[in-house]
Amino acid sequence: MDAVHRRSDRTDDAVDWAILDRDCNAVLDTIEDGGVAIIPTCLTYAIIGHRAEAIGAIFAAKARSYSKPCGVFGSPSMSRELHALPAEKHEIACILKEEEDLPFSIVAPFRRSHPLLADVDSFVIDNASKDGTMDMVVSGGPFVVRLAELCMRRNIVAFGSSANRSLEGSKYQLSDIEPEVRAAASLALDYGVSRYATALGLSSTIIDFRDFSIVRVGHECARLEETFKRRFGISLRRL
Question: Which residues pair with 135 in a beta bridge?
């Protein structure tokens, strides 16, 4: 496994643009070739792939049940392309990220025929979706922002989930990730400690944008609830 020297103390710290660009492209080169990469997000460290063999390796390394699909690491722009939602709901996502600086994931119906997904192996789609919906991190910090921009430019989708053994809690620095998970990745990037590191082991708060229900309580859930009510007059539903 190829791990770079630590780029920063925290995953949200400013990193030289050329280094960020090089690291993101190295990640995409890795997953395009069928490999697995571990990346920093403001939420947790994440493990990602693009091809069927990589997704299978991720599920095996995490000991994750195939009944629990993985998701996509994207952006509001990517969500607008892939998620079949009304324009006003996409605008809500943009405001939450750009104006409120809140981390979250969206669950929504997706466009299987979109060029970003059209050539993706059915095994990957089947295990990154559920009942016609796909989960996407749309506010994952600076690294994920640039990665998503390059994904759209290079026509690659980063599929994956948090870099930890299943049910063992999220990992907020590279050194804390279990050996089995680290071993699955041919590239691992160290950007310090995740912005939202907590002893609770949380990951992203997942919101189903069809009915604004909370699928999973995670980072900044209370702030998200308050912001939805204040900015949009929407009361998030807790299932």
Answer: 107
**pLDDT-based confidence at 217, cuts 50/70/90?**
very high
pLDDT digits 0-9 by tens, 40-87: 999 999 999 999 999 999 999 999 999 999 999 999 999 999 999 999
Nearest CA to 72 among 98, 50, 103, 102? 50
| Cα distances (angstroms) measured from residue 212 to each of 49, 51, 80, 100, 130 | 28, 31, 17, 17, 17
Pairing label, strands 237-238, 159-162: unpaired
Q: Which among 125, 35, 24 is positioned nearest to 82, based on CA atoms?
A: 125
Smallest CA-to-CA distance from 12 within 202, 194, 201 is with 194
User: Which tokens belong to 220?
Assistant: 């900044």
Domain boundaries, the chain: 2-238
Per-residue pLDDT tens over the stretch 77-132: 999 999 999 999 999 999 999 999 999 999 999 999 999 999 999 999 999 999 99
Return the structure tokens found at 90: 């996409």
pTM strictly above 0.85? yes
Q: Give the Cα separation of 189 and 220 in Å (integer).
A: 25
The answer to whether residues 71 and 159 touch, using CB atoms and an 8 Å cutoff, is yes
For domain 2-238, the CATH class is alpha beta
Residue 4 pLDDT exceeds 90:
no
pLDDT (0 to 100) of residue 210: 98
Q: Calculate Rg over the CA atoms of the chain.
A: 16
Question: Any idea of the CA torsion for 9, 14, 19, 22, to the nearest 10 degrees?
Answer: 100
